[in-house]
Amino acid sequence: MINIKKPKVFVTREIPKPGLDLLRKFCDVEVNPHDRVLTKQEIIKGVKGKDALLCLLTDNIDEEIIASNPNLKVIANYAVGYNNIDVSVATKYSIPVTNTPGVLTDTTADLTFSLLMCAARRLVESDNFMRAGKYKGWGPMLMLGHEITGKTIGIIGLGRIGSAVAKRAVNGFNMKVIYYEHDGPKPEVEKALGVKYADFDELLKQADFITLHVPLNDQTKHMVSTKEFGLMKSTAILINTSRGQVINEKALVEALKKGKIAGAALDVYEEEPAMAPGLNELDNALIVPHIGSATIETRTKMATMAAENVIAAVQCKVPPNLVNRVSLEQWKCKI
Ligand code: DGY
Known about the structure:
This protein is of the alpha/beta class. It folds into two domains: 115 residues, NAD(P)-binding Rossmann-like Domain (Rossmann fold, 3-Layer(aba) Sandwich); 183 residues, NAD(P)-binding Rossmann-like Domain (Rossmann fold), CATH 3.40.50.720. 35% of the residues lie in helices and 13% in strands. It is built from twelve helices and twelve strands. The strands form two sheets. The protein has a seven-stranded parallel β-sheet, with helices on both faces. The longest helix has 19 residues. The protein is elongated, with a radius of gyration of 22 Å. It starts with 7 loop residues before the first strand and ends in a 21-residue tail after the last helix. The relative contact order is 0.15. The model has no long low-confidence stretch (mean pLDDT 96). The site of (2R)-2,3-dihydroxypropanoic acid has 7 residues, from loops.
């Protein structure tokens, strides 16, 4: 019997079984045995002698880790966002980086709308009120919230997820949708979705709900801070399912305390898993633990997709969801 050596993969945390099963068909797989985020030294130990790294958004894949094994044939992120990986360093070492786009678009748009509705109609506060035995009967002024149907929603970043949110807003809630894009208007998309472009400041002034769908980078870091809260309506509700660092969280706590805006609904935080002091004490902040893509179906698709990216790369094929440009000549996987 010929003993063909399988490529070796390090997976930084257990992911849904179908992804691991698929990987195991083609690779020798080592999975972090602990149910926690690994330290940098543990990741460096894990990637030693491996051909591929499958990592999560909670792993900060920096130069030290990448340089510890420049022979990696791929770094496959189990997420659509890949700000946790120093892509320019990976590119310098000719290591392909991949992500999991598309499969979590509707799931994240659904969570965005759940947050919007929960915050507008004060569902968590109402639930807590009931459980605390405070309900003494129907009241004309009890738990008054904000109307959703027909209101204006401002979408910052009209990519895949932003567009899916726009569809829900227009078709489901008859909302007026305005959007801002760093690169300016997208006439084709505007026509298809029935949405209108607005300047950033204009959007902040006009929208009743503001939702963020931009990747985290130098341009978007703290794009919503004290000045921006000052432009928003005092009745506005801000929703974030993108990345925490897009908002200056300290400034948000101040804005919520001072009533500069009516509420915020957050899935992501600046220094996850920590939150800015005071945020968790505010009734007008709805906070959930980064669950934008957390459905069994979507996380399974993400696992399979990340596995497919690894398998392609270790077989020296260009992975389907490549996010950087690497020179094929310098790629450690010679074709
Ligand atoms: C992503 O894929 O970037 C999401 O944040 C995961 O939920």
